Every structure is written in C-alpha cells, then in structure tokens.
From TrEMBL:
Keywords: Amino-acid biosynthesis, Arginine biosynthesis, ATP-binding, Cytoplasm, Kinase, Nucleotide-binding, Transferase. It comes from Celerinatantimonas diazotrophica. The gene is argB. It comes from the Bacteria. GO terms for cellular component: cytoplasm. This is Acetylglutamate kinase. Catalyzes the ATP-dependent phosphorylation of N-acetyl-L-glutamate. Belongs to the acetylglutamate kinase family. ArgB subfamily. InterPro entries: AceGlu_kinase-like_sf, AcgluKinase_fam, ArgB, Asp/Glu/Uridylate_kinase. Substrate binds at residues 41-42, 63, 155. One of its GO terms (molecular function) is acetylglutamate kinase activity.
Amino acid sequence: MLEPIVLKLGGAIFENETALANLCQALASVQERPLVLVHGGGVIVESLLAHLGLVSEKIEGLRVTPHTQIDYVTGALAGTANKKLTAAILRQGRAAVGLCLGDGGLCRVTELDAKFGAVGQCDSGDPELLSTLLEQHYLPVISSIGIGDDGQLYNVNADQAAVAIGKMLQGPLVLLSDVPGVLDENGQLIESLDQSQAEQLMASGTIHGGMAVKVKAALDASEAMQQVVILAGWKDADALAKLLMGESVGTTVNATNTIEKY
Ligand SMILES: Nc1ncnc2c1ncn2[C@@H]1O[C@H](COP(=O)(O)OP(=O)(O)O)[C@@H](O)[C@H]1O
Ligand SMILES: CC(=O)N[C@@H](CCC(=O)OP(=O)(O)O)C(=O)O
C-alpha cells in the first residue's frame, strides 16, 4: 500500500458548512491513495469558551489551557469538531472513523510547559491502529486531543499533531488553512520557503501567530522526513483538486533546500 497522504484541516472551515461539504466531497473522491485527516477547530473552542463566559489567550500561537478548561476544549475538539468532520465525510459515502491522538496509543503526549496549562507536545507512537483502519479502507479523522502517560487529557496544536502523525506514516504532509499559503509583506503568496527564509520572515513579523507555529511545524517535519511539506488553503476547490492529484500548490516548505518532490 502507498503511504497515506496526511492532511491537516484547520481554521474557520468548521463554521462554513458549504466549504466543509465541498472539501469532504473532494476528499471522499480520492480512491487511488489512502488518506488520514488530522484536524483543529480553534474556532469551535473559542466560541464554546466565549459562550461559557471564559476568556482564552494565546502565547506564541498556542492556546493557554487552564486545567479547569481542558474538559471544555476536549468537548469542542474531540467532540464537536471531530464528529462534524466525520459526519461530513460519511455523508459523502466514505467510512470515516473519528479518533483522538491517544486512541490505540497513536501518539505520545507530554506536558509542553506549565505556563500553558494542559497543553501537550506530541510524538509519534504506535501506528498499528491506523494501519489496520487503512487496510480496511476506513478514513481516519484524528482530533488534536492527546492522552498523557499520566492519564491526563492534553490540548495539542493541530499542526504539531499532524506532524507527529506524518512522521509516523512517512507519507506526504499537507497543512490546509483559511489562507492560500504563506503570504509575504504585500500579501502575495510565497511559493517556496526554506529554513533561512522562514526564519527571516518570522523575525521580521511577516509570519506570525498561528502561521509561525505552522511554518515551524512544517520545517520540523520536512527535515525529519526529508521531504517537502505543503501549506495550502481549503477555500480554492481547483487548487485542492490539483493538490490531491499530486501537484504542489500553495507554499512548499523545504527545510534543507535539496528535496524536490511533494
Ligand atoms: N505570513 C503569513 N501568511 C499567511 N497567514 C499568516 C501570516 N502570518 C500570520 N498569518 C495568520 O495565520 C493564520 C493561519 O494560521 P492559523 O489561524 O493558526 O490557521 P489554522 O487555524 O488553519 O491552523 C492566517 O489566517 C493569518 O491570519
Ligand atoms: C495548544 C493549542 O493551541 N491548541 C489548539 C488546538 C486546535 C487547533 O490547532 O485548531 P486550528 O488548527 O483550527 O487552529 C487550540 O486550542 O486552538
């Protein structure tokens, strides 16, 4: 079996039913190559916390998650976001299965830093569950909630979660968000990015917030897997179709500048 494409989905798509349905239709039509979806859902977390009258802050693009809030965050990500995405794929006739990072020991998660609360850092774990599901033609849909060795639930940034899954499966890695890729200071798409260009753009603030987390995660994956990582958008159906045919769209992140193929 070919290595699966690991595709991460994040951003406001969870608030846009049409975009979500269109994307799931495109994904469900991919028969030639196994797919694994990893997803975020920060917008759902934010709306739930706001509903509950709770304030949420981010440091360096990561959500500070007080231990008193992790149950709500789990509900939003492993519950609402995971089940909405699973449902949207099932509606297209593909047998999707919703999981979190802890299921079957897929990923090992430990506390990142006490200053973030219940935020985890994620490493690859046991691929057996995914292999079994893929062999049986299920489409795994994985939320970024992790389970630590301490039995605690952790909130993991979904780009970092996708990188851990990508490293484990060694397939192409694509991070989709609500922008078409990394944009320069004039708002123009940057088609390729290596380590030093990325560092300069982060130092100048052109790449910041969630995109800085994404670019760092992509560089880490590109270096570890010795392959390029694609950062693209879910809004452009044509670009998405090209991507699923193996063409590179958006921004190609290449940590060492010597790797050629997506
Ligand atoms: N240079 C940049 N190019 C594109 N987006 C950027 C850049 N710097 C910061 N951003 C912000 O990063 C966001 C994407 O990151 P994020 O919101 O974390 O995406 P997701 O939720 O899909 O993981 C964009 O919507 C934009 O607001
Ligand atoms: C620690 C941390 O920042 N966790 C993220 C997890 C969800 C996520 O990454 O969602 P998007 O991909 O949609 O942004 C959060 O709570 O927002």
